[in-house]
Amino acid sequence: MTTTPYQLIGGEAAIRSLVDRFYFYMDMLPQTRGIRDMHADLAGAKEKLFKFLSGWLGGPNLFIEEYGHPMLRMRHIKFAIGPDERDQWMLCMDKALAEVNMDASFRRELRNALQQLATHMINQEQESLVQIDEPH
């Protein structure tokens, strides 16, 4: 029998803990204010992320059962998400992942998969940091 990521992370309790810690950091860290401001209702967001991760990791497909296919980019298109927002999201996730007891190699694999998922959500170009001076 194949072990799923859902089982490797510790099932429902571990995913709830991960999601709780993730939103704790989003709510508390000043450097994540950009993504925090996108969330009017943290309780609803917590429940949706928990349900999504449950199915995404190979456990019960709670999100699909309630909301249908995740279609993550479409659901997030109304938010301006660039590399900065992705990095803020990953900062919260990295801190939360560090607090959930799991095998270190699995944590790295999970983090990489979540990084790819977060990068997929980018729908805005990053503004150029280089300004070109106009000729005088």
Note the main attributes of this structure.
single chain; 136 residues; mainly alpha; Globin-like; globular
Notes on the structure:
With 136 residues, the chain is an all-alpha fold. It has one domain: Orthogonal Bundle (Globin-like). The chain is built from 8 helices and no strands. The chain is globular and about 45 Å long. About 4% of the residues have low confidence. Belongs to the truncated hemoglobin family. Group II subfamily. It comes from Methylomonas paludis.
Helix content range of the residues, please? Answer: 55-70%
Structural class: mainly alpha
Number of helices, counting only DSSP H or I runs of 4 residues or more: 8
- Assign the CATH architecture: Orthogonal Bundle
In total, the number of strands is 0
Main sheet properties: none
Which percent range describes the beta-strand content? Answer: under 5%
List segments where confidence is low: pLDDT < 50 over at least 5 consecutive residues: 128-132
Indicate the CATH topology. Answer: Globin-like
Q: What's the overall geometry?
A: globular
At the fourth level of CATH, the homologous superfamily is Globins
The overall pLDDT, averaged over residues, is 92
User: How many domains is the backbone divided into?
Assistant: 1
Distance separating the two termini: 71 Å
Order of helices and strands: HHHHHHHH
Give the class-level CATH name.
Mainly Alpha
The whole-angstrom Rg is 17 Å
Q: How would the blueprint of this fold be written?
A:
Layout: H1 5-9, H2 11-28, H3 33-36, H4 42-56, H5 62-67, H6 72-76, H7 83-99, H8 104-120
Helix pairs in contact: 2-4, 2-7, 7-8
